[in-house]
Structures are given as structure tokens and as C-alpha cells.
Specification:
The protein is built from ten helices and twelve strands. It has 379 residues and is α+β, with helices and mostly antiparallel strands. The protein has two domains: 102 residues, no CATH class; 197 residues, Rhomboid-like (Rhomboid-like fold, Up-down Bundle). β1 and β2 form a beta hairpin. α1 packs antiparallel against α4 and α6 runs parallel beside α8.
């Protein structure tokens, strides 16, 4: 049997926010003496333990099967994850903590610095330009069904998603309300930058699907009389709603603000309505239901595969305006750390509910990347 103490002191390995220690990694020691718990060992003791085998069990509990090496001797010690299995106030970020803020000066909008709020702000500004500007602005940035005949208009696959009808304020209000209602939860689960990549890619994929639908059926189906042009965030919003329904199928939502139903039922109803509208059986004449279907299909595809063909679009996040974000005294030197941390949190929740065997190769690679970054930061 391997010893579980060094110099009479019991040892415990703590690995921040990882499901289990990585083989070959060196972790800091935490010693606890018999008389006073939490005291550090003698200065001659090594600063860490090298992991030689992966323990069994689940994160958030202590492990006693981990095999580590202390100097030249094998050692059995307690492993303890610093991340509890269930966190309260999980949506509290660093900007919500008083000790991290600089004193605020000037006018504050009072909005959290979320990607959803930034997207709503940008869409609102574009709408004001449409409303007070000329119609040429809308026609130039809207998506035309024959955009591929002039390749330089490829930008329309993205810009159309930020336009709305300047003569119908309910168009933008409805889309932005649904985005705000469902997008916040998705952003908390996947992270700000990942949500931005998802949202922008959804705009493009919905536009491509609508283009193909127009080419194949636009002239034969009555509900597709869209004059070969489309604009609006509905496709990306439909993708967000679909992703929400797949992540939270039993979450209660209210149809027409009064009828409580599980989210999966609401999703099925919306999908059925869009299918009926796209087929011309019912629905408004000036609604691009095909774009809704394309967005919803992409949302489902992303849920099962995390496939983002236009992941580079997330690099635009640094150019988006910041809404109501106070200055901080602290600085994060690691670019992309927030995204990685959000992904690790989501993977750990999956391990806690479904077990480690349910992880995909991409999720395992993410955990390895997080472990490697932690080891580099310790050097």
C-alpha cells in the first residue's frame, strides 16, 4: 500500500476547475498537520506532486485512488477538485464583483457588458440609420437572391441580419426581444465570444439556406413572394431559440405571455409554423420562413457537433461597442481565457450529469488544453 503522508503531514492535491488530475502534470501540495489543519510543511518538502495515474470518481468529491510521485517515491494522496459540482450565482462574472471595479465616472447606461446587449445596440443603431436615411442604404445591405452573380456582394450574407423594416417597428422589437430573452442564457452557457461566433454564423447559414430555397421554390410557392430580397435577424434568432430548446427542453416558457409550456413543445410549435409558412399553406406573404428554417437547422447542428465553419467571425468581437462596462483594476493577460473557461464549465457540468464517457473528442481536447494552460501559468 502506498503511503499517504510526507514527513508526517497528510497531503492533498488541488486542481482548479478540472474534473481530474492530468497524467504527467505537476500540482501544488496542500498539507494538513495533525494539530493545525492547513499549515504548510517544512521548506525542504518539494513544491508539488507529479501525477502518474488518473483517479476514479467525479469532480467535486475527494479521490483516494490517485497515484502521485513525491521526489523519488510513489505516493497515494487525496485529490480534491476546487470546483463544486453545483454553483450558485453561476452567472456572476468579474464585472459583478465590487473589488474589481474602478470608481465609475460620467454617464452609465446601467447595462451589463453582455454580447447580447451589444448586438441589440448595434442592430438598434442600424435601424435608426435606416429610419432616418435613404432606402438605398437598406437595398445595398439587404440580401438579394441573386447575390452570387456578383461575388463582391457576398458581404450581404452578413449585413442583412442587422437590417429590419424601417416601416414596421414591431419587426425589430420582436426579434430583439426574443434574442434578449433566449440569448442571455445561451451566452452564459457558451461564453460571450462563442455566442458571437454562433450568432454571426447563424446569420450567414440562414441566408444561404434562404438563397437555395428561393432558387428552388421561390417562383412556385405563394408564401415566397419576397421580391428576391430578405433582411432581418429572424434566422439568427431562430437558431438561438433552437439551441435554447435543445439545451433546456424542460424549461417553462409562456406562449403569448400566458400559456405555460415546456420549451421543447414551444420549439416544435414554432418549427411547425415555419414549415407551414415555407410550404405556402399559411402565414404572412412577406415573411422569409425559409430563413427561419435554415437558422433553426443550424442551431440544432451546432448543438450536436459544435460545428462553426465561420469561427473567424468571432474575431470581430474586439471591435464591438462596450455597453455600461466599468473599468477594472485587474487585467487578464490570456486572450481567449474567458471562452476556454466557459467551455470547461460546460464540460464539467456534462461530466457531472452524464459521466466522463459521454465526452466527445473535441471536449476531451478542450480539457487537455485547459490543463496545459494551467501548467504553463504555474511556471
Amino acid at each position: 500500500m502506498l503511503p499517504d503522508s510526507v514527513g508526517g503531514l497528510q497531503v492533498c492535491v488541488r486542481v482548479p476547475r478540472l474534473a481530474c488530475p492530468a497524467v504527467g502534470a505537476v500540482y501544488p501540495l496542500r498539507t494538513a498537520g495533525r494539530a493545525s489543519s492547513g499549515t504548510h510543511g517544512p521548506s525542504s518538502s518539494p513544491a508539488g506532486l507529479t501525477c502518474e495515474s488518473r483517479p476514479r470518481g467525479r469532480h467535486g468529491v475527494q479521490y483516494r485512488a490517485a497515484r502521485f510521485r513525491h521526489g523519488g517515491h510513489a505516493l497515494r494522496c487525496t485529490f480534491e477538485s476546487t470546483r463544486p459540482p453545483h454553483r450558485r450565482n453561476a452567472d456572476m462574472g468579474i464585472y459583478d464583483r465590487d473589488y474589481a471595479r474602478e470608481p465609475q465616472q460620467g454617464l452609465q447606461l446601467g447595462l451589463p457588458a453582455s454580447m447580447v446587449n451589444r448586438l441589440i445596440l448595434i442592430t438598434g443603431v442600424v435601424y435608426l440609420i435606416q429610419y432616418f436615411g435613404s432606402e438605398a442604404f437598406t437595398l445595398q445591405l439587404a440580401l438579394w437572391s441573386d447575390w452570387f452573380r456578383t461575388p463582391w456582394r457576398v458581404f450581404q450574407l452578413l449585413t442583412y441580419g442587422f437590417l429590419h423594416s424601417p416601416h414596421d417597428v414591431l419587426h425589430i422589437l420582436g426579434n430583439m426581444f426574443v434574442l434578449w430573452m433566449f440569448g442571455r442564457e445561451i451566452e452564459r452557457r457558451y461564453g460571450q465570444h462563442e455566442f458571437l461566433r454562433f450568432y454571426l454564423t447563424a446569420i450567414v447559414m440562414a441566408g444561404l439556406f434562404w438563397t437555395g430555397w428561393e432558387i428552388a421554390f421561390g417562383k412556385t410557392l405563394a408564401a415566397q413572394q419576397t421580391s428576391g430580397i430578405v433582411y432581418g435577424a429572424s434566422g439568427a434568432v431562430a437558431a438561438t431559440v433552437a439551441l435554447f430548446a435543445l439545451n433546456f427542453p424542460r424549461r417553462t416558457v409562456y406562449l403569448n405571455f400566458f400559456i405555460p409550456v415546456p420549451m421543447w413543445i414551444a420549439g416544435v410549435l414554432m418549427l411547425s409554423f415555419d414549415i407551414g409558412g415555407a410550404s405556402g399553406r399559411f402565414g404572412a406573404q412577406n415573411v422569409a420562413y425559409a430563413a427561419h428554417l435554415g437558422g433553426a437547422a443550424f442551431g440544432a447542428l451546432y448543438f450536436y457537433t459544435q460545428w462553426l465553419p465561420l469561427r473567424w467571425l468571432g474575431n470581430l468581437s474586439g471591435k464591438l461597442p462596450k455597453v455600461g462596462r466599468p473599468n477594472l483594476r485587474v487585467h487578464d493577460p490570456d486572450a481567449g481565457h474567458e471562452d476556454l473557461q466557459a467551455q470547461v464549465d460546460r464540460i464539467l457540468e456534462k461530466i457531472n450529469t452524464q459521466g466522463q464517457d459521454s465526452l466527445t473528442w473535441r471536449e476531451r481536447r478542450t480539457l487537455e488544453q485547459a490543463s496545459r494552460k494551467y501548467r504553463e501559468n504555474r511556471r
